[in-house]
Amino acid sequence: MWDAAFLAGLVPVVFLLVNALLSRRRASGGRVRALPPKEVTIVIPVHAERPERFEECLRSAVRQGSRVVVVGDGCEEPYRSLARQAAAEFIHLPEQGGKKRALAAGLREVTTPFVLFVDSDTELPEHAVRDLSTYFEAGVGGVGANLFVRASGSPAARAAEFVERAREVVLRAMSSRGNVLYLDGACMMFRTEVVRPYVLSDEFQRLTVLGRPTRLGDDWQLTDYVLRQGLRTVKAYPVAVVTERPETLADFVRQNVRWSRSGWIRVGRYLRGEGPQNPGLFYRFELVGTYALPLLALALGIVRLPAYLHMVERFLDPFTDAVMGLVPSSPVFHVSPLVRAFFSVQVAVGGLAAGAFGWAVARRLPPGDRARTLAWGMLGSVLLLPTTIYALLTFWRSPVWRGSARGRSDGSIVPTSALPPGPAGRSPLLPR
Fewer CB within 10 A of the end CB, N or C, for the chain? Predict the structure, then answer.
C-alpha cells in the first residue's frame, strides 16, 4: 500500500514540475502572413447579456474590419438595436435553445474561409483578427486567444485571474509539445469548412450525458473535433482578450462547478474512446492530470495521514498520542522509519514542485497586484477541490445558458432543423 501511495505521489510532483519547466519554452510551429479582415466572419451569440457589456464586445468586434453577425438566442432588444447602430447583422432566434444552437445559426450565414466565435461578454484587442490569423499555418485547424479576467480588485476577480494564469501555464507547456488541451470558448477561430459540418450536426448539438441533453462543452467539443480531423489546435498567447469577471466568490465557485462538470464529461468520453485517438502521450498526460489531480491529491492526503502524524510526533507528542490512539491497531497504519523517510523526501520535493509551478503562475500576474492576486488565488485553489468533487458527483446536471428563466425547463435543445436557412456550404477547405 505504501509503495503504491509513494509512486502515486510522484504524479502531481511530475505534473507540476513538467508544466512549470515546459511553459518557459517557445511554442512549436511558425507564423504566416496575416489574412485580410474580409476573409473572417465574427459570430457573437448573445442571451441575457448586460447591454453595456455587450456593447463593449460589439464595438471591439466591429473595429476588426470583419463582417460581424450577432445571434440573439431567445432575445431581441436591445441587442438588435445595438447591432444595427454598430453596422453589424442580427439574427433573431425566437425560442432560446442554447449557445450551440446560436453558434450554428450564425455559422449558417458565414461565407468566408474563416470564422471567429466570440462570447458576448468578451472584449477583443485591436487587430485581434489579424493576429489570430497569422497562426493558421498548414495543418492548423483552430486558434484560441489568451483569456484574461476583467480587473475589478474584488477577491473573486483575483481568484479567477489566478486560475486563468494557472491554465495558461499548462497550455503553454502543451504548446511546446504540439496541440493545446482546449480552445477557450470566449474567443476561438476556425477554418469554416472544417467545423461547419460538425457545428450543424446532431453530434455537436445533442451531446448527452446518461441519456440527458447537456449544453456544456462547446469549446472542448470543437477542439476535439479539429484534432480528430488530423489538424492542430494552437493558442495565440499575445492576443489577450478580456472577459467578464465573477462578481462574488459564490459566482467563482458556480463558474468552476460548470467548468469541472464539462471537464469530467470530456474525460469520461475520452476514456470510452470518444475523444481524439492519436493526440500523443503528453496530451493524454495533461488531459487526465488537469482534471484528476485534485482528486489524486485528496486521496493521497487521506492515505498519508498516519505518516504525517508520525512525522510530527516528536514535536506534538501529546496531540499525536491522543489522535493516534483513535486509529485502529492494524499493520496498515504502521509506518516504518524507511517509509517516513521516503514520504519526508516526497513532501519536500512536492513543495519545490508546487513552488516552481506557483512562480510560473506568479510571473504572469500583474506586478502591481501580484501579492493580493496570489493570496486570493491560493484561496480559490482551495475552493477548487470541493468544487471538483461536487462536479464529479453531479456531472450530469446542465445549467441553462446564462441562467435565464426563459430557457426550457427540461433542458432540451431545439434541433438544428429548426434553424433559419443560410447559404449553401462550400467544398472543404484544405490546409494552406
Answer: N
**Torsion (CA) 75, 78, 82, 84 in degrees, nearest 10:** 70
Q: What is the pLDDT along the chain (432 residues), one digit of tens a residue?
A: 445 555 666 777 888 888 898 888 888 778 899 999 999 999 999 998 999 999 999 999 999 999 999 999 999 899 999 999 999 999 999 988 889 999 999 999 999 999 999 999 999 999 999 999 999 999 999 999 999 998 888 899 999 999 999 999 999 998 888 888 889 999 999 999 999 999 999 989 888 887 787 877 899 999 999 998 989 999 999 999 999 888 888 999 988 888 888 888 888 888 787 777 777 778 888 887 777 777 766 666 666 666 555 555 555 555 555 555 554 444 444 555 665 666 667 677 878 888 888 889 998 998 888 899 989 888 888 888 888 888 888 887 766 554 333 333 333 334 434 444 444 333 233 233
Asked if residues 165 and 361 have their Cβ atoms less than 8 Å apart, the reply is yes
Closest CA to 117 of 104, 127, 136: 104
CATH code of the domain covering residue 197? 3.90.550.10
What is the greatest pairwise CA distance in the chain? 78
- The pTM (predicted TM-score) of the whole model is 0.81
Q: Match 425566437 to its residue by C-alpha cell.
A: 94
CA dist 43 and 39 (Å) reads 13
Contact 17, 351 (CB under 8 A): no
Any idea how long the chain is? 432
Does a structural domain hold residue 280? no
Residue 181: name the closest of 173, 193, 191 by CA. 173
3-state secondary structure (DSSP) of residue 395: coil
Residue 233 within any structural domain of the chain: yes
In a domain, 147, yes or no: yes
Residue 31 carries which DSSP code?
A: -
Q: Is beta strand 114-118 parallel, antiparallel or unpaired with respect to 89-93?
A: unpaired
User: How many domains does the chain contain in total?
Assistant: 1
Domain ranges, residue 106: 39-246
Q: 212 pairs with which residues across the strands?
A: 209
